[in-house]
Amino acid sequence: MTVLVTGARGAVGSAVRSGLLAAGVDVRAAGRDPSVLPDDGSARVALDLDDPSSYGPALDGVDRVFVYVAEDLRPFARAMADAGVRHAVLLSSESVLTEPEPEPGGIAAHHADAETALRGAGITTTALRPGAFAGNTGQWSRGIAAGFVELPFPRSATTPIDERDIGDVAVAALLADPVDESVHVTGPESLTMAEQVAQVAERLGRPIEVRAVDPDVAREQMARFVPSAVVDSLFRYWRDTDGVPAPVTDEVARRTGHPARTYRQWLTEVFTGA
C-alpha cells in the first residue's frame, strides 16, 4: 500500500509520516518544495494543492491519502478519484460541529466544503475534526517572551490536542479498512486560555501575566491581518465558550490504544519556549 501524505513537513503531517513508516507502509511525502522534507525513507514528491499540474505525478500509484484543507479542494478530490484513490483521511476541524450554519469564508465553512468535496468525488472519507492544537501556543510567543499574554476571553475553554495524537489517529484510520465517518478528536482535558498560559509559565519556571483586553479592540487588531470571516469565527467561538467547559472525547484512546497526551505533556516534550 502506498499512502500520499500532504503537508508532510507540518506537525500533524510529520506524525502521520513517521507512524506510517514505522508500520512498514510505503510513504510518499508531499510538499511544495520536496527538497526541504526530511530524508527518512519516504519518497519525496512535489505537490501544491492549488496547482493542478502537480497532481498527476504525486497521485500516480497511490492507494490512500492524508490531506489537509486547501483553498478549494474540489480539483484535487477529482484528481484523486481519477487516479483510483478511494480512501482519504482529511484534517478537518471541530468548527464544523460548533458552527452548524457556518458563515461563508469562515473556518467552519472552509472545512465543511473540503469534506463535501472529497465525498462528492466518491472518495471514502475519514474526516478528523480536532479542536485547538497544542501547537497553537505559538500564537502567544511574543507575549510569553514579554512576560504577559493579552486575551480578549481568558476564560474561553478548549481541549488542546497534541498534534502527535492527531497523527496517531490518522495513521490508525489509514491502516484500517476504509470507513466514511467524521471523528471529533480532542485532548484529554478542558482548559481555559488562562489555565494554558499558567501551565506555560510553570513549564518555563517564570511568571506570565494574563491581561484581559477589550474584545472590540482585540478584534480590530486581528482584522488588520486576518480575513474578516475568520476573525468572526474565532471571536464567536471564544465568546460562546467563555466560562463554558469544552467537550472531551475518548476517540484518541479508542482508536490508538493509548491515552491522549495532556497539554502538560506537550509542553514538557515538544514546547521549546519560543
UniProtKB/TrEMBL annotation:
Q: From the UniProt record, list the coiled-coil ranges.
A: none
Q: Which SUPFAM superfamilies match?
A: NAD(P)-binding Rossmann-fold domains
- What are the residue boundaries of the NAD(P)-binding domain, all occurrences included? 7-174
This protein is called Uncharacterized protein YbjT (DUF2867 family)
What the entry lists under PANTHER family is as follows: PRESTALK A DIFFERENTIATION PROTEIN A, PTHR43162
Domain of life the protein comes from:
Bacteria
The record ties this protein, via Pfam families, to:
NAD_binding_10 (PF13460)
Organism (species):
Actinomycetospora corticicola
